[in-house]
Design a protein that fits this description.
4 copies of one chain form a homotetramer. By secondary structure, chain A is an alpha+beta fold. Chain A has one domain: Thiol Ester Dehydrase, Chain A, CATH 3.10.129. In chain A, strands 1-3-4-5-2 form a 5-stranded antiparallel β-sheet. In chain A, a hairpin with a 2-residue loop joins strand 4 and strand 5. The radius of gyration of chain A is 16 Å and the shape is globular. Chain A starts with a strand and ends with a helix. The interface between A and B is medium-sized, with 31 and 31 residues. Chains A, B, C, D: This is Candidate 4-hydroxybenzoyl-CoA thioesterase. Chains A, B, C, D: It comes from Ramlibacter tataouinensis (strain ATCC BAA-407 / DSM 14655 / LMG 21543 / TTB310). Chains A, B, C, D: Pfam families: 4HBT_2.
Amino acid sequence: MTRTVVYQVRVEFGDCDPARIVWFPNFFRWIDAASRHFFVECGVPPWHETEQALGVIGTPLVDTHAKFVKTASYGDLLRIHTSVAEWRGKSFIQRHRVMREDTLVMECDEVRIFAGRRADGSIFALEVPGAIRDACR
Amino acid sequence: MTRTVVYQVRVEFGDCDPARIVWFPNFFRWIDAASRHFFVECGVPPWHETEQALGVIGTPLVDTHAKFVKTASYGDLLRIHTSVAEWRGKSFIQRHRVMREDTLVMECDEVRIFAGRRADGSIFALEVPGAIRDACR
Amino acid sequence: MTRTVVYQVRVEFGDCDPARIVWFPNFFRWIDAASRHFFVECGVPPWHETEQALGVIGTPLVDTHAKFVKTASYGDLLRIHTSVAEWRGKSFIQRHRVMREDTLVMECDEVRIFAGRRADGSIFALEVPGAIRDACR
Amino acid sequence: MTRTVVYQVRVEFGDCDPARIVWFPNFFRWIDAASRHFFVECGVPPWHETEQALGVIGTPLVDTHAKFVKTASYGDLLRIHTSVAEWRGKSFIQRHRVMREDTLVMECDEVRIFAGRRADGSIFALEVPGAIRDACR
């Protein structure tokens, strides 16, 4: 049993390109919001707070694989169903299914890490914090 | 031997997020530009012209798989190396490697189609036009 | 008495820049959505339908003047209060007030036109259609 | 005599909306880049360095007034001519003229401040640093 959180998006005129369909980078914009929304709904504080408590500055993306199944256009209401498909030691797979009513529009599996920051400004993968993992069950 | 075209990007302040690294949907914005730039450099006309000549309204994305290898931040100059890795009957794989000097920052394999539009407004995959394929050699 | 329509926005992580505040072009993204949302709420059809019925392809911006009063950041819920402050012969002034609860965050007066398209592809200002003006009262 | 710096932009397919013209928030994206580019060309360091040396975290916008004179579309090459029209005690007016060859496409006057950050995270206007003002002559 995995927890699923839904994030809702209205497609706007400006999200569409001259072919009158959603310009695809906007799907990733929404999926990134859905990714963070998942943690917010699970009770995880904003990243500038977790930075102090856990050293976590965010969950940058390592790998993403997306399939675009149907087009969408302005006026559409999309619902992104987000869950964690797998927890690993230093990363996790977050799965997003973008639905328009019962129609699958796009789906995406992301590998993300919980990132810390070194003194030189570079970032690195932390062990998945148990407190966050527990919050997401 | 495949043709490779380079598209250059300056990373701007507004492309970065509160973690001070490029917010990842912007990579897809640049890759989409690199994809079209590839065809422009190969001599393919803009899509509103190909629409009349070939029925092609653009090259929408069907599937994309990206790996984020290094972070980038504002002030960075990125060079996206784009080629067609494979031509299929009704689709093609376009490969993009985002470099900062000799460092690989991100790489991405896309499956794209040449799209036509039906009378009802929906889009569909055309056979890869021979004229475009020849232009890209 | 002018009609006011409210458009709601959640500020996302990716809307913010390295200073951790909303990167200002995103305000214009939301205001453009609020502008169209105003017409939708007043019962005006989508632009690809008005194109056939009235020759209107959209309401492009001619002039905008915005004041940024307070910063906003991710997690904020913004409500954009939109009204038409003035109807002119071939243009109108749309006013947007972006609020976070009782706090004014940003305000913006836009001059927009109802645009038609000429045979050569260029656009021009139509007389404000009476049917649309009446719908917005 | 005021110094003018030019920032060059290629308009991309994804910058355009279903009316096939640049979606206007993208002009502000480019103008923000031109604003920072102006300081970079004048020798001012990136904001994360000025934060330590001068307490300056960036130049947020207080007020902007833009006129949209001509439309632009993908394939266009735009050149943004940026200068400081006026220095004030705690703000300055930056002027941007977006040109396509000899045609004025858009112009914009911005009021910006040099921002510092208080301990509570809020930002405020600093006196215009003399070192930066001198660098921009």
